[in-house]
Amino acid sequence: AQSVTQLGSHVSVSEGALVLLRCNYSSSVPPYLFWYVQYPNQGLQLLLKYTTGATLVKGINGFEAEFKKSETSFHLTKPSAHMSDAAEYFCAVTGAGGTSYGKLTFGQGTILTVHP
Amino acid sequence: DSGVTQTPKHLITATGQRVTLRCSPRSGDLSVYWYQQSLDQGLQFLIQYYNGEERAKGNILERFSAQQFPDLHSELNLSSLELGDSALYFCASSVAPPGSGANVLTFGAGSRLTVL
Question: In 3-state terms, chain A is what percent helix, strand and coil (to 5)?
Answer without folding.
Answer: 10, 55, 35
